[in-house]
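Risk register update: the risk of archive-format incompatibility is retired. Evidence:
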Amino acid sequence: MVTGARRARAAIPVVGTLGLALVAALIAERLHSPLPWMIGPLLAVALAGVLGAPVDCPTPLRNAGQWVIGTALGLYFTPAVLATIVTLAPALLVGIGWALLAGTLFYRLLAAVSGAANAEERATAFFSAAIGGASEMAVLGEQHGGRIDRIAMAHSLRVLIVVVAVPFGLQWSGLHGIDAAAPGPARLHPGGLLLLGTLTMAGSLLTQRLRWPNPFVLGSMAVAMVLTGTGIELSALPAQVSHAGQLLIGCALGARFTPDFLHSAPRWLGTVALGAVALIASSAAVAGVLASLIGLPWPTVLLGTAPGGVAEMCITAKVLQLGVPVVTAFHVTRYLAVLLCTAPLYRWLERRRGTNAV
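Archived output:
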């Protein structure tokens, strides 16, 4: 009985958060906001959290949202699209190189602000600046002696700024629907949808068991991609399912913001915000050059090079009809490359620093 009462009390903030997110999504949709089912919940939950409301989005709900979005993205990879993606390999390498360079320059800015007087401050600044997944960079930073709280704060703020600024900027500029790609399956089949959900969830759980990074996005995406790429079209995803996935991701991002967030190292957070804006601007410039070289629309390449997360930027591409497979390819390859290269790059910079100090 006591356990049941505790569970009921623990569920109250979750139910309240989901209710607030739903209302915010509907209002954002009514106001014709870009990505209303993600941005509405994200801003509402973040504001409520900063003001001290007991917001909560447990990990299973976040995983569910990522599973839905990963599945939705994988359905875009038809055989024709996969053949096209192969030809973009040089551009994908440029995107990876740009991400590593931009992260290093951002690190210099954060290090200058924090002073970088010791190894802890340098590790904190470096892994805060890396354009990679928030949880993965926080773990790597802690392993190298950095402050996990500041690293997590930096990535949360950067993603918030990118997720809000980029979609609104594209919508206000009228740049949407110019590089549309349709998912492979066009019709809804209840039995096929059930099988698709089962297979993609199995892929997510398997990749989680194998300790893959971001398993509920990458695992479900991989399964859906293989099915679609081989011509197996089980079912389309209902719009309501995609909306639910976006809502849960928005809740998960917003729930990171607490009353202590703005009061903890305001100068640090101000520099992160400034750096995020600079990253968006520089990514736009790089995207312009790259787009002219590979013959793709600039907004599509901008989303591919933008310093946001895999799920968030790919959702933006999906909703604004801006080349979902291309944007996904940019972000997945960058995500994996940054994950593999960030720690060795930091150790190399530290060795080089030690050599120069001598």
